[in-house]
Design a protein that fits this description.
This protein is of the alpha/beta class. It is built from 15 helices and 13 strands. The protein starts with 9 loop residues before the first helix and ends in a 15-residue tail after the last strand.
């Protein structure tokens, strides 16, 4: 969740309404997109006049049917946003019963402080609040889910409507520059970032900080832990890790040289990346928590293009096959609840998410004994098996592993539209 859907959101909704589609689609207001439209990508607080303009945009988007205000405080320009500014925008959302979801400011050394901030956004802004794709990045932070989940429990006990979601993998995925460069180097956008990387006075400082991030955060201490997913300017890099690329360019695969390779990638326009730095024990602990939902954090990717994170193909069936059937982390019934009725009710979709007369007929028929994710990091473009039929708004959208001609998907809206 980057916090950057289109601004304003109404024209995007209108285009979606006119588009034949197989799935239901909804959206949040993106705090990052709102801030970029008003303040730009500058590292400074908003002025009072800018705050009023942002509030007006949020208000209109909520009236046009957004589900709430999402934040991507890890990303520019969200990373430059103080807590008080986010809270003021959430107060606009509160009368619509909108939900706050967040890619938090930090999922590594600052993960505990970031969970506290996410809770505070809900508590001070008067909105339900959700930690998105919760994880602990970097070996030094493995196990800290004990503390973050305790914070969620304590918040819920005092009346804060705090929840979380998760995908069942030990790697994350985002752009190389967003994950591996210091935030100060990203101000102004990628063009300004490239200029800083090429500046001989700034390059050594950026490189040193990249090396530190590779060692202790998303690099997991090994250049082999960072792989390229998609790369527009050199598609042949997809699937290769930083160690591979270092050797290709005549360098030993050290962390220092991996930092140099990172800067070379950014200079050329950056690429998408996959980062293996999450602990399995935290994945299990978070999944078992009663306030956790399942969400892929992935997008629809062109089949066969690049080496995307397997979450785009396997998230939900992986939970069913690995964490229910094989490992017994959660029950089948609880897994289904975490994928259907729980998130539907969280979004205020009271006519979806359960099997009941009068509800919208969005159904998935699967075999619990055979359902399995096939996508791997090495071969991600593989569809799951064991899913027999998918019904969208009462019509069969997928049957026998094939998408039908039916296009019965709908745009779904928040309460402001209704």
């Amino acid at each position: 969740m980057s916090g950057s859907p289109p601004v304003p959101i109404r024209p995007w909704f209108d285009r979606l309404e006119a588009l034949p589609k197989s799935i239901n689609i909804g959206a949040f207001v993106g705090q990052g997109g709102i801030r970029a439209a008003v303040v730009g990508l500058a590292n400074r607080p908003a002025t009072p006049e800018e705050m009023e303009r942002m509030k007006a945009l949020v208000l209109q988007d909520m009236k046009d049917g957004a589900f709430g205000l999402s934040t991507g405080l890890f990303y520019v320009p969200g990373a430059f946003t103080p807590l008080a500014e986010v809270v003021e925008l959430q107060k606009v959302v509160a009368p619509f019963r909108g939900l706050h979801t967040s890619h938090m400011r930090d999922e590594a050394a600052g993960v505990v402080a970031s969970v506290k901030e996410t809770i505070a956004i809900g508590e001070l802004g008067g909105v339900p609040t959700q930690v998105s794709h919760h994880k602990m990045i970097g070996k030094a932070n493995w196990g800290r889910s004990v503390e973050t989940l305790r914070l969620i429990d304590e918040a819920r006990a005092r009346g804060v409507d705090a929840t979380l979601d998760q995908y069942p993998y030990t790697a994350s995925s985002t752009s190389i520059h967003a994950a591996l460069l210091p935030k100060w180097a990203l101000e102004g956008g990628l063009k300004d970032t490239i200029a800083r990387v090429r500046n001989p006075l700034l390059r050594p400082k950026i490189k040193a900080e990249v090396a530190q991030i590779l060692e202790s955060e998303r690099g997991g201490g090994d250049p082999r832990n960072v792989a390229i997913s998609l790369c527009d300017w050199d598609p042949s890099l997809a699937g290769k890790n930083l160690a591979d690329i270092a050797v290709m360019r005549g360098l030993t695969p050290s962390l220092e040289n991996a930092a140099e390779i990172t800067l070379w990638i950014v200079e050329n326009g950056s690429c998408g990346g996959i980062f293996h730095a999450i602990g399995e024990a935290d994945v299990v602990r978070i999944m078992a928590h009663p306030a956790t939902m399942i969400a892929s954090d992935g997008g629809v990717v062109p089949f066969g293009v690049g080496a995307p994170h397997p979450r785009s193909y396997g998230t939900f069936v992986r939970v069913l096959g690995v964490y229910v059937r094989e490992k017994g982390v959660i029950t089948l019934g609880d897994a289904v609840r975490k994928m259907t009725s729980y998130p539907a009710s969280r979004l205020g979709l009271m006519d979806r998410g359960v099997l009941r007369e009068g509800m919208k007929a969005d159904l998935v028929v699967f075999n619990p004994a055979t359902v399995k994710d096939m996508a791997t990091y090495e071969k991600p473009h593989q569809y799951a098996v064991g899913v027999e039929i998918v019904v969208v708004n009462g019509e069969v959208a997928v049957e026998g592993g094939r998408v039908t001609e039916k296009r019965t998907g709908r745009v779904v809206y928040g309460v402001g539209k209704k």
